Every structure is written in structure tokens, then in C-alpha cells.
Amino acid sequence: MKIGIFGGTFDPIHNGHLYIADNARKLQNLDRVIFVPTANPPHKQNKLITTPASRLEMCTLAIAGNEYFEVSDIEVNRPGLSYTITTLNELKASYGTRAQLYFICGADMLGDIPNWYLAQEIVANYHIIAFPRPGFDMKSIVQQQQLLKEHSNNLILLDIMAVEISATLVRNSIKAGNSVKYLIPDQVIEYIQLHDLYSGRTRK
Ligand code: ATP
Fold it and tell me: Which of 16, 58, 124, 167 is the most exposed place for a label (fewest CB within 10 A)?
């Protein structure tokens, strides 16, 4: 069994996330993709983020109807800082030795992985499927990072069309009063409106 693990803040989940998850599944023949919203991302300690429960709920709404997609609360329910290696090892243990885990990320995250806790263990033991993002050259990122270069056999750099959309852009668009229809799923828009997220009046 081949399982994609897609970690992220998902604040909020957007169509760029769904687009790369679907391509990871299709192009690498994954049996499923598990979205893992992070509770307390170590790299976003100084930023205000929406509650884990809300981000988890938005992920659940966004994937509804896709039989290959699942959402896991494994990080949301873990106390303290969330580390990707802990998540991967826990999921690996729960799926058994026959399961192969593929960590899905965008080009910006790829370059950051060497700075993560136990990065060596991540790249040595797990496959990484990376997707292009505007402004990031994945091949030169790998060339510049010794750790990635050493484990390039575990890296799968997918050369598909990059999409500009980011959660920052979505949050800013909502704050500015613009439409984000077609950038994020309709059910997520409804949730955001219902809970008055990202409007700038309150931060939840
Ligand atoms: P923010 O703008 O708040 O930093 P983000 O849009 O980058 O958020 P995250 O939840 O931080 O979203 O990202 C989760 C994962 O999805 C990361 O690996 C990130 O690189 C990837 N990702 C997000 N948007 C895209 C995109 N448009 N194309 C490719 N990868 C993406």
C-alpha cells in the first residue's frame, strides 16, 4: 500500500493543496492521501493561526466526496510541538511494514526540510513528493542542500504546472473583501463566513 501524507497548516485549505494532493495520488499511484493539519507548527511559532479544530474541520469539508482523501487529527491531538518525523513514524507503525509512506510538499517546504527536527531520519526513511511553486526552482534547491542531495533517490520532484495560490493570498483576499470562490471549495467558504474567519475583525 502506498500512502501519501500531506502535512500543512491549512489556514485555510485551498485548491492548490487539493490540486497537488490529487496529482500526487494520480502520478505516483497512491492508494490514499491523508491530510494532516498541524496543531502547533514549529516554523510558525510567531504567527497567529486559526484554531486547530477549525483548520481540521475545513480540511474535512474540503475533501468530502473524494474517496482517496482522508483527514487525520494525529497532530492536532498531540500535545506540545508537532514534528513531522513523529507523525510519519506513528503512521508507519499504525499501517504496518508493508505500507510505504510518501510525504507530500511544495517546493518551498522542500528547501526547509533540512532544518526540521531529525531531518536526516525523514529523508533517509521516507519518500518525498515535491511540487513546483512559483519562485522556487526545485532542482537548484536540491543542489544547494547537502542532505537532500545525499538522499535524492528518495525525492520525487514532479514537474507539473505550478499554481500561484497560497493560504496567505486567500486570507488577504478575504480581509480585503474580495471573492475567493474558485480558489477554495465552496463548503470551506461557507465555514469561513459562518465563523467569521480572516475578516480581520477577530482572529480565531
Ligand atoms: P501560507 O501562505 O499560510 O504559508 P500555504 O499556502 O503555503 O500557507 P501550507 O498549509 O503552509 O499552505 O502548506 C502545506 C503544504 O502545501 C506545504 O508543503 C506547501 O508547500 C504546499 N503548498 C501550498 N500551496 C501550494 C501550491 N499552490 N502549490 C504547491 N504546493 C503548495
Answer: 124
